[in-house]
Design brief:
Blueprint: E1 2-6, H1 10-22, E2 26-30, H2 33-42, E3 47-51, H3 59-68, E4 75-79, H4 84-92, E5 97-100, H5 105-119, E6 127-129, E7 132-135, E8 140-143, E9 146-148, H6 152-163, E10 168-169, H7 171-178, H8 188-202, E11 210-213, E12 217-220
Parallel strand pairs: 1-2, 1-3, 3-4, 4-5
Antiparallel strand pairs: 6-7, 7-8, 8-9, 10-12, 11-12
Helix pairs in contact: 2-3, 6-8
This protein binds calcium ion (CA).
The site of calcium ion (CA) has 5 residues, from loops.
Length: 224
């Protein structure tokens, strides 16, 4: 999951970034409205967490401008203010959900999962491909009923594959959605992690889910 956090409170932003990264989420932070708007328009995020009270441009405006520019990335609005007015205004400005500060981190994560499911067509709570099952809520994975232990990065990579099953994904695309933006190592890291995944989800089961597409990237095949 690649997430844009638009939040000017440095301490809140830092603690969210720490938590989200530990959960395998790729996070970029914008500290004011115009930067958030620019990043959201230029880059491809899976979800945006947007504070309302921001320097230079309010969260309302950012939201309206994005929808006006046909950017339909799911948006969860964070607001310190309470009251029906803000909630209605947030939703009317094109936001998908809102959360009032202070909020619980696990509630934020649960809401983000809902938004990701809602993103394209209907998304199942548990991701399934043939006999492979991945549950983003419990971070658990199993194949043919056998539990598989995955690291946070392996889990994020497999989740990205499952959400994009039967589609060729380039290494760059995978890096953008699964690794931190400040990752400056070699794109070959993708190859390394695909290797780890294959050793866990394919080899023991004599399956071949993750196919290398020469010169293009990888394809997670299911239903074949
Ligand atoms: Ca603020």
């Amino acid at each position: 999951m690649r997430l844009l956090l638009v939040e000017d409170e440095a301490r809140l932003a830092a603690s969210l970034v720490r938590g989200l990264r530990a959960d395998g989420v790729v996070v970029e932070v914008a500290e004011d409205g115009p930067t958030g708007l620019r990043l959201a328009r230029e880059l491809d995020f899976d979800v945006i967490v947007l504070d309302l009270m921001l320097p230079h441009m309010s969260g309302f405006r950012v939201c309206q401008e994005l929808r006006r520019a046909n950017v339909w990335t799911p948006i969860l609005v964070l607001t310190a203010k309470t009251g029906e007015f803000d909630e209605i205004e947030s939703l009317d400005s094109g936001a998908d959900d809102f959360l009032t500060k202070p909020f619980s981190y696990s509630v934020l994560l649960a809401r983000l999962r809902v938004l990701l499911r809602r993103d394209v067509n209907e998304r199942p709570v548990v991701l399934e491909a043939d006999d492979l099952r991945l549950d983003p809520a419990t971070k658990s994975c199993a194949r043919a009923g056998v539990d598989i232990a995955l690291s946070a990065r392996e889990f994020s990579l497999l989740e990205y594959f499952l959400r994009n099953a039967n589609r060729v994904l380039s290494k760059d695309e995978i890096l953008d959605h699964v690794w931190d933006p400040d990752f400056d190592g070699s794109p070959n890291i993708v190859e390394v992690y695909v290797g780890y995944l294959r050793r866990k989800i394919d080899r023991p089961f004599s399956t071949n889910s993750i196919v290398t597409v020469p010169r293009s990237g990888y394809l997670f095949q299911c239903g074949a």
